[in-house]
């Protein structure tokens, strides 16, 4: 995962006002659809009716329209423009030298851009760093080094466009994220200042299996690229990327997948973040979300209130003996998406068995057969709130992999399952539940009162040409 997003602010227009007013008055413009009345939750306080799902949908849709207007207004050459939009290919000094799809290229077929190199043709020595810096592999099993990496990222990693929030991956999370089956220390690459040994740069690769349409293969997922704030714009990032590429190539791998908030040549898909408030008061206090006009905080609290108990019979935390069934269920579900990972049992054991404070996974068995029919997971990625007097962090849960009964063919069933994920996340004291518009997520975003975020997440493939995919064709979820 590589972009910070917060709830999109409403633009102050008559249309948005009307939408919010409709919700606040309880008036509805719905026609024909079965209303899922949020106010039906038994524990909803008396004295005000929360908006129906359709009303919320209308508000969200209208706010979505505002989003397009905001982006049009933004493209007047401000600082963010070159990061958010494509440049001419010859302006990408580094990326134009790499085997990636060009921004102006019309992709007719899918496949590698460059043929695999023979091992003896791969550079054997590390790329040169600027004077005063040296390479240093990070031993993520060592608590002291994991803490050094945590500190680099917690002060220098991804922020939202307004520099209000910064991802704060915990050290326990980083250990989990960097040590799946087949992980290699050689792919956890740090840069230190030679004189004082301070860690100032990092990039990582982990092994993974990915299928793109009918083709499947092993590749690497690249993540946690970071350069200390004081060393930005000095072309260190291209050196880190070339070094990880060299080290991955030495293991006979020539393709990679990665995500970023910035626009690079050239996304295979562009997804959007969505946020479901669980603790609206705190989110408003931190500036993550806002109180729309004609809405009050009390009303927002009612709007986002969740039941105390889950709906799905038998829902329980995933256990080691569930691994074979979850692997089969998840792989079957993943096959329904044109770009999706495939998992071995040991990968499912690593990625999906619960890890306290890091990843939360639940399964639901069929009442008669005991066979697992449903599964979902979410992970914990707090964001540091920059310069807020009341709060230091927002506790965010991110939807990870899931597999609903019947491969998601019953939309209402999937909605209920994901509502259970919200209920459990709230019980774990998360403030917000985030997800992208990939997988079948678009089928529950409105009904479960998610709001559109202000961040895009672009998906990229290295050395693999691929016709563009829609968000709902993406099954890959990166951390
Ligand atoms: S995405 C998360 C990235 N990290 C952050 O956003 C944290 C905060 N930012 C920083 O730490 C720095 O700004 C970074 C850039 C390090 C991002 N991915 O050194 P520079 C290009 C790829 O002067 P800096 C994640 O982790 C930029 O277009 N390239 O810039 C996935 C320009 O190239 P060009 C990026 O700001 C990473 C050049 O770098 C990114 O000091 C996947 C400028 O370098 C970016 N996010 O440092 C990496 N941002 O001139 C690719 C900027 O061409 C993996 N740039 O425009 C590729 C596959 C490798 C393995 C292959 C195996 C086969």
Q: Could you please describe the fold and organization of this structure?
A:
- This protein has 479 residues and is an alpha+beta fold.
- The chain contains eleven helices and 16 strands.
- The strands form two sheets. Strands 1, 3, 4, 5, 6, 7, 8, 9, 10, 11, 14, 15 and 16 form a 13-stranded mixed sheet that branches.
- Residues 10-79 have low confidence and may be disordered.
- Bound molecules: tetradecanoyl-COA.
- Tetradecanoyl-COA (MYA) binds next to β5, α6 and β6.
Topology:
Layout: H1 14-25, H2 53-74, H3 81-84, E1 133-137, H4 143-156, E2 165-167, H5 171-178, E3 188-193, E4 199-212, E5 215-227, H6 236-249, E6 256-260, E7 269-277, H7 280-286, H8 297-303, E8 316-317, H9 323-334, E9 339-341, H10 345-352, E10 359-365, E11 372-380, E12 383-385, E13 393-394, E14 396-403, H11 411-427, E15 432-436, E16 451-462
Parallel strand pairs: 5-6, 14-15
Antiparallel strand pairs: 1-3, 2-12, 3-4, 4-5, 4-9, 6-16, 7-15, 7-16, 8-10, 10-11, 11-14, 12-13
Bound molecules: tetradecanoyl-COA.
Keywords:
22% strand, 3-stranded antiparallel beta sheet, 11 helices, alpha+beta, binds tetradecanoyl-COA, Aminopeptidase, 479 residues
- Mean pLDDT metric: 87
CATH topology of the largest domain: Aminopeptidase
CATH structural class of the largest domain:
Alpha Beta
Strand content: 15-25%
Helix content percent band: 25-40%
Give the termini separation.
4 Å
How many individual helices? Answer: 11
By helix and strand content, what is the structural category?
Answer: alpha+beta
CATH architecture of the largest domain: 3-Layer(aba) Sandwich
Number of domains: 2
Q: How many individual β-strands? A: 16
Order of helices and strands: HHHEHEHEEEHEEHHEHEHEEEEEHEE
Low-confidence runs: 10-79
Tell me, what's the shape? Answer: globular
Radius of gyration equals 23 Å
Question: Which ligands accompany this protein?
Answer: tetradecanoyl-COA
Which superfamily, in CATH terms, is the homologous superfamily of the largest domain? Gcn5-related N-acetyltransferase (GNAT)
Largest sheet: 13 strands, mixed
Enzyme class: transferase
Biased composition (Low complexity): 10-24
Domain N-acetyltransferase: 138-308
Keywords: Acyltransferase, Transferase
């Amino acid at each position: 995962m590589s972009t910070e997003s917060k709830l999109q602010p409403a633009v102050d227009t008559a249309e948005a006002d009307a939408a919010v007013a409709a919700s606040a008055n309880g008036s509805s413009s719905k026609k024909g659809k079965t209303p899922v009345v949020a106010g039906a939750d038994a524990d909803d306080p008396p004295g005000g009716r929360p908006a129906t799902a359709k009303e919320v949908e209308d508000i969200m849709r209208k706010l979505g329209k505002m989003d397009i207007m905001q982006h049009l207004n933004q493209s007047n050459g401000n600082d963010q423009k070159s990061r958010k939009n494509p440049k001419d290919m010859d302006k990408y000094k580094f990326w134009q030298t790499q085997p990636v799809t060009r921004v102006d290229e019309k992709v007719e077929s899918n496949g590698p851009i460059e043929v695999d190199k023979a091992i003896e043709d791969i550079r054997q020595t590390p790329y040169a760093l600027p004077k005063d810096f040296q390479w240093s592999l990070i031993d993520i099993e060592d608590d002291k080094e994991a803490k050094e990496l945590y500190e680099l990222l917690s002060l220098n990693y991804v922020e939202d466009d307004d520099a209000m929030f910064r991802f704060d991956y915990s050290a326990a999370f980083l250990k989990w994220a960097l040590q799946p089956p087949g992980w290699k220390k050689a792919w956890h690459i740090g840069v230190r200042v030679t004189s004082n040994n301070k860690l100032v740069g990092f990039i990582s690769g982990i092994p993974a299996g990915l299928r793109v349409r009918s083709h499947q293969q092993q590749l690497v997922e690249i993540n946690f690229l970071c350069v200390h704030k004081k060393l930005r714009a000095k072309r260190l990032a291209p050196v880190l990327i070339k070094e990880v590429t060299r080290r991955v190539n030495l293991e006979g791998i020539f393709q990679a997948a990665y995500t970023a908030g910035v626009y690079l040549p050239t996304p295979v898909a562009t997804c959007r973040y969505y946020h479901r408030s669980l603790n609206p008061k705190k989110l408003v206090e931190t500036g993550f979300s806002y109180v729309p006009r004609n809405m009050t905080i009390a009303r927002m609290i009612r709007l986002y209130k969740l039941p105390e108990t889950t709906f799905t019979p038998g829902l329980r935390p995933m256990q080691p003996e569930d691994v074979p069934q979850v692997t089969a269920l998840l792989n079957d579900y993943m096959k329904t998406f044109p770009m999706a990972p495939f998992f071995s049992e040991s990968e499912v054991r690593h990625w999906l068995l619960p890890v306290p404070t890091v990843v939360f996974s639940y399964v639901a068995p069929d009442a008669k057969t005991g066979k697992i029919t449903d599964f979902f997971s979410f992970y914990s990625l707090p964001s540091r709130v920059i310069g807020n007097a009341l709060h230091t962090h927002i506790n965010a849960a991110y939807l990870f992999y899931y597999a609903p009964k019947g491969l998601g063919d019953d939309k209402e069933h999937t909605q209920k399952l994901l509502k259970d994920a919200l209920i459990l996340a709230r019980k774990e004291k998360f403030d917000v539940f985030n997800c992208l518009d990939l997988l079948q997520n678009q089928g529950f975003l409105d009904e479960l009162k998610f709001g559109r975020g202000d961040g895009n997440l672009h998906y990229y493939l290295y050395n693999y040409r691929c016709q563009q995919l829609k968000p709902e064709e993406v099954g890959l979820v990166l951390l």
